[in-house]
Amino acid sequence: MDQASRRGFFIMSQKDFVLCLKLLLFLLVVSQFGTDGRQQWPVPYRRFDSRPDVDSYCEALYPFCPTGDPDGRIPFMKDGDIISIYRLQTPVWEWKYGDLLGKLHVMHDAVGFSSLDTGTNYTMEWYELFQLGNCTFPHLRPEMKAPFWCNQGAACFFEGIDDLHWSQNGTLEKIGEISGSQFNDLAQWVQDDNRTGIYYETWTVLSDPSPNATAWFESYDCSQFVHRTYRKLTELGAKLSSRSQTNYTKIYLYSGEPTFLGNDSDIFGQPALKNVATDIRKFYYSFRPHQSFAELAVSLLEAFRDVVFDKSFYLYYNFEYWHLPMKPPYMQITYEEVPLP
């Protein structure tokens, strides 16, 4: 045995090195595709090991979860406590516009809890750290080639249920009970889910409006968090039921099969993709924040032209860009029933 082998080193031949490179490339491709080599639809939402720090450029107009625990902790319940579960729903921005968006069925969803032992109520919801617009469209910063995204979403847990807020134009309904022990297990799941699911996704992208449509991308928003919570509660043994129809807001885009374009370095760091990079920046320019009324009117016309006439939409999903070949009816906001599990 030579000296390198005695130290535990492995000297690779050129042929083996090339084979390893091919294997690495295959694994990278398979991470985007199914085992049969075809693209997996819907594209799986990417999870992360931990939540990244917030860039100082991103600043919320309204602070995120102002009355919740700064470290995201959820109170511990006694094992024998009885915890009531409430379904909460209200129009988006109801505090500012009243029921206006409720008439369009644009609703925000949350879950409420009440401890029999202490009589304390709690609200749990998942929403954007930097408001919806920043999670849906990026900023175009002159000093940066790639669009800059302020996109994070997170769970917020705080004491109290604002009965009037949830019930006046929406829903506040008890749907079940769990023990304190089951609640503590749910709390651990919420913290794990919150740590690994870090960004908000507004759009659900389908091939067409039919019941058998292919889902290209799934949204990741407040209602999806509520659905995941209900499923987890059911796994923990809760029996959930509602006297009213359990409808939820969905915002759909309709397109043919999407084309994968790449991440920031792929697109904005490669001279060969300069035209694609230009098209993406031009597309998002129509959705830039802080526009005057006149600028907004022009931007809406440009966005309409891109989506309807040019049948083009650039989607940012899993920190990667996809091109959507849009098709009628292009976009739709629905209020669909999703039964309790």
TrEMBL record:
GO terms for molecular function: hydrolase activity, acting on glycosyl bonds; palmitoyl-(protein) hydrolase activity. PANTHER family: CEROID-LIPOFUSCINOSIS NEURONAL PROTEIN 5, CEROID-LIPOFUSCINOSIS, NEURONAL 5. It holds the Pfam family CLN5. Belongs to the CLN5 family. It catalyses: 2 1-(9Z-octadecenoyl)-sn-glycero-3-phospho-(1'-sn-glycerol) = 1-(9Z-octadecenoyl)-sn-glycero-3-phospho-(3'-(9Z-octadecenoyl)-1'-sn-glycerol) + sn-glycero-3-phospho-(1'-sn-glycerol); 2 1-acyl-sn-glycero-3-phospho-(1'-sn-glycerol) = 1-acyl-sn-glycero-3-phospho-(3'-acyl-sn-1'-glycerol) + sn-glycero-3-phospho-(1'-sn-glycerol); 2 1-tetradecanoyl-sn-glycero-3-phospho-(1'-sn-glycerol) = 1-tetradecanoyl-sn-glycero-3-phospho-(3'-tetradecanoyl-1'-sn-glycerol) + sn-glycero-3-phospho-(1'-sn-glycerol); S-hexadecanoyl-L-cysteinyl-[protein] + H2O = L-cysteinyl-[protein] + hexadecanoate + H(+). It comes from the Eukaryota. Residues 1-31 form the signal peptide. This is Bis(monoacylglycero)phosphate synthase CLN5. GO terms for biological process: aerobic respiration; lysosome organization; oxygen metabolic process; swimming behavior. Catalyzes the synthesis of bis(monoacylglycero)phosphate (BMP) via transacylation of 2 molecules of lysophosphatidylglycerol (LPG). BMP also known as lysobisphosphatidic acid plays a key role in the formation of intraluminal vesicles and in maintaining intracellular cholesterol homeostasis. Can use only LPG as the exclusive lysophospholipid acyl donor for base exchange and displays BMP synthase activity towards various LPGs (LPG 14:0, LPG 16:0, LPG 18:0, LPG 18:1) with a higher preference for longer chain lengths. One of its GO terms (cellular component) is lysosomal membrane. Keywords: Glycoprotein, Signal.
